[in-house]
Amino acid sequence: MAIQYFEVEVSSKLKQKRNLSAFLKELILQYLDVKKIDISYIFCDDAYLLEKNLQFLNHDTLTDIITFDLSEKDFELVAEIYISVDRIRENAEKFKIDYQTELHRVIFHGALHLCGFKDKKKEDKALMTEMENDSLQKYFN
User: Fold this and answer.
1) What DSSP string runs through 47-97?
2) Residue 45 annotated in ligand binding
3) Does 104 appear as a known binding residue?
4) pLDDT score, position 15
5) pTM passes above 0.90
6) What is 2-140's CATH topology?
7) Which of 2, 29, 33, 97 is surrounded by the fewest CB atoms within 10 Å?
């Protein structure tokens, strides 16, 4: 079971990666019965993520995260999660919260998507936000 973190010409300033990986594995195993977890978090800038958004989703918009579930077999979770540190920084300022808090919120958001949680409908978004807040509280306390 591996959770890896990569940076594409940016610094995510992500700390305590080993602790975070353990927490993410616990989080995922609460919702999914998988024997293998292989997730790559790729931290990048707005331009890089916009290119992915256009190429794979045909969306011409900036976003903070794109999650790709690449799993091909039952009982395994294989994924790539792209996160724009530009969006994280801007959203942290906009919502007047700490950069690390916003970074972790988005990291948990991606994992929760992989667990089946959605955020398109109003009620789904409310549940996703609740789950993100719960994850932040558990992780930082």
Assistant:
1) HHHHHHIIIII---S--SEEEEE---STTEEEEEEEEEHHHHHHHHHHTT-
2) no
3) no
4) 95
5) yes
6) Collagenase (Catalytic Domain) (3.40.390)
7) 33
